[in-house]
Amino acid sequence: VQLVESGGGLVQPGGSLRLSCAASGFTLSNSFVSWHRQAPGKERESLASITSIGDGARTYYVESVKGRFTISRDNAKNTVYLQMNSLKPEDTAIYYCQARSNWGQGTQVTVSS
């Protein structure tokens, strides 16, 4: 059972990135999946989540990313995405996905000019 994040990198303010969370060993479509981030010296913060297909695949966002970030799922690829637009320097952090009791290793996002 494993989650692997990818897609992080360095981007200028106002830019976009799409993070991926690929699962092995279990099916994401049957799972509640969430994205989190942790900036240096700060607590881990929950950003967005998507419920299982059976629960309507409803999405939730923290206020600070609402309208800029979008969580989605590709069931064929067993992957959940986090599309991040209008990125700000304060979005700089390590981003993690979480499903059931599993966490990925994280992917670094740096927003800087």
What can you see in these coordinates?
The protein is mainly beta. The chain is built from no helices and eleven strands. The strands form two sheets. Strands 2, 4, 5, 6, 9, 10 and 11 form a seven-stranded mixed β-sheet that branches. A hairpin with a 6-residue loop joins strand 4 and strand 5. The N and C termini lie far apart (37 Å). The mean pLDDT is 96.
* Secondary-structure element order, N to C: EEEEEEEEEEE
- What count of helical segments does DSSP give? 0
Global morphology = globular
Radius of gyration, in angstroms, nearest whole number: 13 Å
Beta-strand residue fraction: over 45%
What's the total count of β strands?
Answer: 11
The overall pLDDT, averaged over residues, is 96
User: What's the story with the biggest beta sheet?
Assistant: 7 strands, mixed
Q: What structural category arises from helix and sheet content? A: mainly beta
**Low-pLDDT windows of residues:** none
Give me the secondary-structure topology.
Elements: E1 2-6, E2 9-11, E3 17-24, E4 33-38, E5 45-50, E6 59-61, E7 69-74, E8 79-84, E9 93-99, E10 102-103, E11 107-111
Parallel strand pairs: 2-11
Antiparallel strand pairs: 1-3, 3-8, 4-5, 4-9, 5-6, 7-8, 9-10, 9-11
What brief labels describe this structure?
113 residues; mainly beta; 0% helix; 7-stranded mixed β-sheet; 4-stranded antiparallel β-sheet
